[in-house]
Amino acid sequence: MSTRDVTTQTFQSDVLEASKPVVVDFWAAWCGPCRMVSPILDQIADEHGDKLEVVKVNVDENPQLAAQYQITSIPALKVFQGGEVVQSIIGAKPKAALEADLAAFIG
């Protein structure tokens, strides 16, 4: 169960109405650090998919979502629970650091 893409049209149902926490990766194809984080997020999704979901939002294709959630630098990870942002993680990090940041949701 790796990551999947979410768009403005599917954000409400896929993220805001999700039954478990959702990590949203705001990224862009031209962003080097985004490409470094992507396989790490795939691993976290595969290993912890029973506890949380990991989805991706391309900021170039969904600028209104990026603006709505005040994304000013990427990669930006936002953890949603119950339709609200409960945690923000900015920048590329190694897997251990990301897992530590997400420990409250995957622990």
Features:
single chain, 107 residues, alpha/beta, Glutaredoxin, five-stranded mixed sheet, 5 helices, 37% helix
Question: Secondary-structure map with pairings?
Answer:
Elements: E1 4-5, H1 11-16, E2 22-27, H2 32-48, E3 53-58, H3 63-68, E4 76-81, E5 84-90, H4 95-101, H5 103-106
Q: How would you describe this protein?
A:
There is one protein chain. This protein has 107 residues and is of the alpha/beta class. The chain has one domain: Glutaredoxin. Helices cover 37% and strands 25% of the residues. It has five helices and five strands. It has helices at residues 11-16, 32-48, 63-68, 95-101, 103-106, and strands spanning 4-5, 22-27, 53-58, 76-81, 84-90. A five-stranded mixed beta sheet has the order 1-3-2-4-5. Strand 4 and strand 5 (84-90) form a beta hairpin. The longest helix has 17 residues, at 32-48. The protein is globular and about 35 Å long. The record marks 25 as: Deprotonates C-terminal active site Cys.
Short description:
The chain is α/β, with parallel strands linked by helices.
Question: What structural class do helix, strand and pairing data support?
Answer: alpha/beta
**Structural domain tally:** 1
CATH class: Alpha Beta
Oligomeric form? single chain
What is the makeup of the main sheet? 5 strands, mixed
Please provide the count of β strands.
Answer: 5
